[in-house]
Structures are given as structure tokens and as C-alpha cells.
Amino acid sequence: MSGNYGKVYLVGSGPGDPELLTLKARRLIDTAEVIIYDQLPGKVILSSMPDSAEKIDAGKFAGKHTLTQNKINEAIVQKAKEGKMVVRLKGGDPYVFGRGGEEAEALVQEGIEFEIVPGITSAIAVPAYAGIPVTHRESTSMVTFITGHEDPTKEESGLNWDALAKFEGTIVILMGVKMLRRNAEELMKNGKDSETPVALIERGTRPDQRVTVGTLASIADLAEERGVKAPAITVVGDVVRLHDILGEQLTGTDF
Ligand code: SAH
User: Fold this and answer.
1) What pLDDT is attached to residue 152?
2) Which residues of 81-117 are buried (b: 16+ CB within 10 A; e: fewer)?
3) Average pLDDT value for residue range 176-181
């Protein structure tokens, strides 16, 4: 009987600065009976989870990607069936490359009530803290978000590099560290100017945020030299030049 089931909240935590949590996210975290989280929300937000909640690290289901996701879905479903109020806490926004859609589908299938609590996505906020507006009237009026992480053994890329190279707007790449060199090469091979500015922003909105700026031609070598690590956002396009003018927001907001 679904009447005895608990409710699930798929909650976005924003990009890491705890002051970028929504009021709704804060309230739900504080009142949850079960919180199923991964590491992306970051230490500060994760350490603010209340003692009263049962906390389940979704990372402990680590393994093959799809299997892992199935196990996470099962854990969410099981806790809801026990009648618990469950918060599934995810970095950024739950529906932006967060597999939140898959989790929501699993809940629909099981007849479990749920709500989405959108979060501030890293795709926009992380460039913003690095002084990069993703659109700007003088440089671009379009923006696209892509995943840079694709299985390197896949023969055909799921991304249309030809269309992306022709795209005149800002390209924001999530999960793009591992495949950075290949992705930059794909864009150049398909005709994008090798001098197009590129920024890599690691751990955006967090106290140890670091920004690396280069061009499509230079960014992969720079990233290697500087030991760039995930999580990082890659921004490709003219708006990256604004970083020099708008600077970098200090992220030491007392956290
Ligand atoms: N749902 C999330 C994205 C999940 S995919 C969102 O809306 O933000 C995971 C990717 O998000 C990482 O590989 C990285 O590209 C990006 N990301 C999330 N938080 C970040 C942060 N604080 N700094 C840099 N990149 C971040």
C-alpha cells in the first residue's frame, strides 16, 4: 500500500558553498529521516547533516556505472517503502547530469511519492564565481551544456562534435577532466578555432577553487602541468576573456 510509503525528495545541494543551498534544501536536510548522499555536495554541506538522520553514502555502492545506479535506486525505494522521509542529496541540480531523472523514474515505477528540489547548478554558478558569465550580450547569446565524460572505448562519440564546433555560443563541459585532450582535439578537428579561450575551474565556489585559463590548443597541456583534477567545469568560448576583467570571487565565505 503506497499510503504507508514515505516520501522522497531529490534535492540539489548547489555547487559547494553552503550559502548556495536553497532554504528548502536546508529545511529538508535538517528534517530528513534518511539521507542518501554522494560526495559531490562537498565536505562542508555533508558535515552539516543532522545526527538524527540515518546517512547512507551512495558511494559505497561503487562499481560498474549502471549497476551502481540500480543499487542507489533500490536503496531509495527500500527506505521509502519503510515509510521514511528520504532525502536523496545530490551536487548542483538533480536534473543536470545528475541521473536524477533515472531516480525519479524508479520512484514513479514503484508508486512512491516524490518531489524535486532544484539546486544551483555548477554549470552556471562555478563559471560565475570565476568571473565568467555564461552569456554576455557582446560575446554570445547562446550556451550549451555537455558531458565530457564518455567511455573512451566507445567507437562512436555520442556527441555531435561537428555541430558543437560550429556552435557559436558558450560550451560548458561537465565531467570533462579525463577526456579533456580528446574533447579539445575533436573541437579543433571539426573546425573550431584553436585560439578559442578555455577556462578550467576546479572545486568552484569552494575555498580552494582554482582557475586555469588557456586556449583549445593549450588547455590539455596546461591541465597536465597543473595536475587539474575533478570536479571541474570547462568553459569554452569568448566569455572566458571576461575572467580577466571580472576577476574571481573570493570563496572564503566563512566556510
Ligand atoms: N548535477 C550537478 C552535476 C553532476 S555531474 C550540477 O548540476 O552541478 C558532476 C560534474 O559536475 C563534475 O564532474 C563537474 O564537472 C561538475 N561540478 C559539480 N560541482 C562542481 C564544483 N563545485 N566545481 C567544479 N565542477 C563541479
Assistant:
1) 58
2) eeebbbbbbbbbbbbbbbebeebbebbeebebebebb
3) 95
